Request: fold
Amino acid sequence: MCIIMKKYYVYIHTKLNGEVFYVGKGCGRRAYTTHHRNNWWHYIAKSGYNTIITDYYDTSEEASNAEIELIAVYRSLGCELVNQTDGGDGGSTGRVWQESTRKKLRECGKGEKNGMFGKHHTDDARKIISDSNTGEGNGFYGKSHSDVTRAKMKAAWEKRRLVGISDETRAKLREANRGENNPNFGKEHSEITKEKMRIKASLRTHTEETKNKITASQEGIKRGPYKKRKLRISSEPS
Reply:
């Protein structure tokens, strides 16, 4: 006798003490993956958590409705869920966060509160992460952009290439990577790392195709005055 499993399901994540902190819906391995989770989720999950499938459904719509109901139930019971919507949306599409929420997200993932603070992935961990995002584990597996989406992406890229980045955007980028916001703030590359960077830079070469593209993209662009690099004269004997 062949038993056909229902594709969609609703699941919960609980702390090790059994307290529910997240409700979600999905299919495949979604309930057991850690990617595409918000910072609040990671902040709690780093202490350990359990995954429980509550029920299975035939359609995504049925799972969405069940997710909405379950989120409402747990919130009515006083559970502090890290869900940032009331459910049923399958992600952050169309969500606009308030500045206060953005600030909380930044604080949750900053410094020692970040689950990876002072740590580095081992080679085994890197392989596991790579394998989990390969094939069916990849959220875009078996999918492709529609012609409309491709046209929008192309138009957006052409606009950026021709218009460039605005001064306002440049200022925001500078501020976002300045001071303590810079991942290298207060750090210095080791001599080994510096040597690796020098070697990599010396071996880097552009293909003829890339060179032609760079030349074509620079045509007609007004360049500033050429500044001659000062010759550094060493006082040490050769």
Summary: The CA atoms of residues 8 and 173 lie 40 Å apart. Confidence is low (pLDDT under 50) at residues 224-236. The first strand starts at residue 8 and ends at 15.
